[in-house]
From TrEMBL:
Alphabetized GO MF terms: catalytic activity
Listed Gene3D superfamilies: Phosphoenolpyruvate-binding domains (3.20.20.60)
Cross-referenced PANTHER family: PHOSPHOENOLPYRUVATE CARBOXYLASE, PHOSPHOENOLPYRUVATE CARBOXYLASE FAMILY PROTEIN
Cited InterPro entries: Pyrv/PenolPyrv_kinase-like_dom, Pyrv_kinase-like_dom_sf
Name this polypeptide is given: Uncharacterized protein
Pfam families the record matches: PEP_mutase
Domain of life: Eukaryota
Amino acid sequence: MKVDTPDSASTISMTNTITITVEQDGIYEVNGARQDPVINLQMVTGSSKLRKQLRDSDELIICPGVYDGLSARIAINMGFKAMYMTGAGTTASRLGHADLGLAHLYDMRTNAEMIANLDPYGPPLIADMDHGYG
């Protein structure tokens, strides 16, 4: 990798295939193509997405019960606007037992995080955290 840092611009070349030039004003070029320095991507929380759905529509929001990556992927691919992670489903799929209070906060939290992170820009997840662990 070669790095040149003249007063007006910085250039990074990698094996002569990609050249990125960054001007002092923040404008940059990739292989000579000028790029927009401002990309306005903003992460929106699942709770904000769900509140917006409820506020902006009178439509019933159907939330299928999901309990693992496969059931969540099916719900996402079918186009559901929200999902519900069941405590019983999580206990059964993670521990192989009925919902008898055997799952801990760690089990519920890691399962909810895994499901929510399958598609961070996708449907929000409502997670049943059993008895609250508090």
